[in-house]
Amino acid sequence: MHGQDQLSRRPKVEVDASHRYGDLVVHEHLQFAVAANEFVCICGPSGCGKTTLLDMLAGILRPSQGAVLIDGKPADPKQQSISFVFQEPSTFPWLNVRDNVATGLRIKGVRTAEIDAKVREIVEIVGLTGFERYYPHQISGGMKQRVAIARAFVTDADLILMDEPFVSLDQPTRERMQKEVLDIWRHRRRTVVFVTHNLEEAIFLGDRILILSAKPARIVAELPIALPRPRDPVSPDFMALRSQCMHWLHAPGGGQSTGGTIQEKAGLTQSR
């Protein structure tokens, strides 16, 4: 029983890695963990290697040193179910909305009846009911990104990686999509790592924020977000957190703001 309890308490994701391209050191001893079903946001200056970190988490890039583990095993898209949502909507133009959302399930060999049920549920959650037969060229950019997000969540992935998925959207659409992503996450709890340049977005979405320094990137701050959801971006507590994030974002690269093992760090917050 004790061994099973230890296994259940193990972080979903564990990172203890450095990466370089020749003489260019991109990441210098990144060490953190992500609990199961936690929503973690990563912020940092342009060019600090945030997308490279997502590639390592996805298992498509091996770190030069150290390891990235999912459920205690090296990250490997052939062994684990890992979904990626990109900056630009990644829809297949020859498939309609329904078939775009169902792509991952078909690749996994899920039975047709189960595909129909899962797709129907997620399409309703993301507000695309009635658009199932539409093709990508017939819907807006925001709707295309909903399709990509629905496809990521419908497979019940071990890990969902999101690389600034709302960066190209106008502000009203971006704010609406932030709320929708949280709604999907509440309905279908998954482990999410979300990269963004937008501090308000990170505070609005995340259970925890990791702030990276410029290259060679290190984690200069690890901030739990204890504010209840839904969060008010103009509340004093929200603004105080934004000020704290700004301080660390512009601070010289240095030691981490929190200590402890990666297991302890994954327990800083509980998903709500």
- Count the beta strands: 10
Query: What is the percentage of strand-forming residues?
Result: 15-25%
Q: Low-confidence spans: pLDDT under 50, at least 5 residues?
A: 1-7, 254-272
* Overall domain count: 2
Entry keywords:
alpha/beta, Rossmann fold, 2 domains, six-stranded mixed beta sheet, four-stranded antiparallel beta sheet
Give the secondary structure arrangement, pairings included:
Elements: H1 2-9, E1 13-21, E2 24-34, E3 39-43, H2 50-58, E4 65-70, E5 73-74, E6 82-85, H3 97-107, H4 112-125, H5 141-154, E7 159-163, H6 171-187, E8 192-195, H7 199-205, E9 208-212, E10 219-224, H8 236-250, H9 262-266
Parallel strand pairs: 3-8, 3-9, 6-7, 7-8
Antiparallel strand pairs: 1-2, 1-4, 4-5, 9-10
Helix pairs in contact: 3-4, 3-5, 4-5, 5-6, 7-8
Compact summary:
Helices cover 37% and strands 21% of the residues. With 272 residues, the protein is of the alpha/beta class. The two termini are 27 Å apart.
Describe this structure in words.
This protein has 272 residues and is of the alpha/beta class. It folds into two domains: 2-80 and 159-266, P-loop containing nucleotide triphosphate hydrolases (Rossmann fold), CATH 3.40.50; 91-157, no CATH class. Helix content is 37%, strand content 21%. It has nine helices and ten strands. The strands form two sheets. Strands 6-7-8-3-9-10 form a six-stranded mixed β-sheet, sandwiched between helices. β7 (159-163), α6 and β8 (192-195) form a beta-alpha-beta unit. α3 (97-107) crosses α4 (112-125) and α5 runs parallel beside α6. It is globular, with a radius of gyration of 19 Å. The two termini are 27 Å apart. Residues 1-7 and 254-272 have low confidence and may be disordered.
